[in-house]
Design a protein that fits this description.
The protein is of the alpha/beta class. It has one domain (2-183): Alpha/Beta hydrolase fold, catalytic domain (Rossmann fold, 3-Layer(aba) Sandwich). 41% of the residues lie in helices and 15% in strands. It has helices at 2-8, 21-33, 55-64, 86-94, 104-119, 142-148, 173-188; strands spanning 15-19, 39-43, 72-74, 101-103, 128-133, 155-160. Helix 3 packs across helix 5 (104-119).
Length: 190
């Protein structure tokens, strides 16, 4: 993907962005690969989630994830917790590509990825902006605060009071986009 972007836009700087599961992925990728980017932005990273309150599913993923990786369970994700905007929730629920399933194999892999990513947070070497809603009941705000803690001033952490999971679909949307834009502008001046 980076090669494609560099070929298509050879003179533009690259930023890596991920939301929720994508937030986990960009943090993990940044730790493993240290890509040549101007910075990484992760919103509502799911390093700590409501899944922690479902120990039977965690045990099933750990024990059965390698034996029956394609077996799927309901994720338990509460769609009403994605945004305070009812139209966003309704659109999410009506989207035919959205489902509430997670395979045991994927769950097993992601349990390992999130654990490793949090354990190695202090090694994150790229410019990093973490954004999270304080009222996020899907991916807990502790995901971002815990990842940022060992990085101290090497990371910019921004939390929004009352905001749910999809910051880009919350009433604070303009503030969120402005914060991202200002942060990227500052990285371009470095």
């Amino acid at each position: 993907m980076f090669e494609q972007a560099r070929l298509r836009y050879p003179n533009l700087p690259l930023f890596l962005y991920g939301h929720s599961l994508g937030g986990i992925q960009v943090l993990h990728y940044g730790l493993l690969r240290k890509p040549n980017v101007k910075g990484v932005i992760a919103t509502s990273s799911g390093l700590r989630t409501a899944l922690e309150n479902q120990p039977a599913k965690i045990m099933a993923a750990k024990v059965l994830g390698a034996l029956m990786p394609t077996v799927s369970l309901a994720s338990g994700l509460d769609a009403s917790a994605i945004s305070r905007n009812k139209a966003v929730v309704d659109a999410y629920n009506a989207d035919p590509l959205v489902h509430d399933k997670i395979s045991l194999g994927f769950g097993k892999v992601m349990l390992g990825v999130t654990k490793w990513t949090l354990e190695h947070a202090g090694e994150f070497s790229l410019p990093l902006l973490l954004l999270h809603g304080k009222a996020d009941a899907i991916a807990f705000p502790s995901s971002s605060t815990e990842f940022a803690a060992p990085l101290k001033d090497k990371c910019t952490l921004m939390l929004w009071d009352g905001a749910y999971h999809e910051l880009h679909n919350e009433p604070e949307q303009a503030e969120v986009f402005k914060a991202m834009t200002l942060w990227m502008d500052a990285r371009l001046r470095e």
